[in-house]
Design brief:
Length: 444
Amino acid sequence: IRARLTADGELMQRVLASEGYYDAVVDTRIDRGEREEGQERQGQDGQRRSIAAVIDVKPGKRYTLADIIINAAPTVPPTLIADNFPLAIGEPIVAQRIQGAEAAIALKLPQEGYPFAKVGQRDILLDGATGDGVYTLPVDIGKRSRFGGIETTGDLAFDAEHVEVLARFKRGDLYDSRMVDDLRQALVATGLFATVAAEPQATGESAGDDTEYVTMLVTQQAGPPRTLAASAGYGTGEGIRLEGSWTHRNLFPPEGALTFRGVLGTQEQGIGATLRRSNSGRRDRTMELVTEVTRSNYDAFNAITGRVGVRVSYDSTPIWQKKFTYAYGAELIATREDDYDFTTGGRSYDFYTILGLTGQVGMDRTNSLLDPTKGFRITSLIQPEGSLAGSFSPYARLRTDVSGYYPVTDSIVVAGRVRVGSILGAAREKLAPSRRFYAGGGGS
């Protein structure tokens, strides 16, 4: 008990000092209770007396900051450190506040062009007579820098040229550690690395206006590029579904993936192959070539379909949410489908050959891609296409989706969604059943 009490006293001393009470006096003692009459003999038989552990605290005066001195070379702008240093003269010397202020400087300087800034060891001179403290902090800001080139080393998944595609900065931009973090996240998101790091390297090359270029050194350690996946499930609306796939994520560097996929289920069976190049010439732009054969068995129609399609898309990601996105492409479809014939009152099969184009634009004004609480999104799709059987019969599929989010309180958000679609230029019975719009069910 005495050892634990001593440790608690030392802890109390440290807690008080962390809050500015540097002259605190902490005494500990153990008070033993008195035995009652007749307990002397019981004590010899093993009975224990009650004790009280006492911690006596005299906090003393609380020290405050009388002066704050930052020893650092001039910055650009001149008040960069002062504007981001939250301590003020007159406030108590609280350890958590001081550590937080130093961390704020260490974080802000690399965001404003100082990649090699280092915060030194603080010194606090206390005056026991007045309760004042003079706080001194040395800061080595290093050389103000701009982004230069990109180099890469290690077990490479792709070269430095493709790393430049992922970077959201260009040569000559003022160094910003947030852009480096963004690049690091984009590299990780490719899924091609066991480990990857991005760090600035000084070059000594002048960039003008008293700045120097820094080279971003990307250290790669390529991970296993192949993925084998399988899933199984049952839904009351679709029955049993088994799905498996094999993917090589970097078969055609950089980021050229090949995927083989198979589906076996109550309503759908099929096989397909996809060639996909991610970050194709531009970050988050994807080029995709798909070929697949499927057999579908739905309440609305049955179909055996072969499809070849190509698509280019520019999308938002959790790392980089974009205000505007787009997609375009083309596809050739050959399909044999059954349809209800209102004349005969039965179902009959028809063969359709369809050539179509796809165009899509989206606008996103929400505050978060994955967890929006305010704003709106609009996505419009247009698909001009036509049947190649007999004379060419063109038509257009149009669809617009609108969703909105409004925060009623801090914990309640009202959200709504509207979908409007139309097919222009063709009667319903002239369309392949799989190319029609359907309402109801989970997609309504």
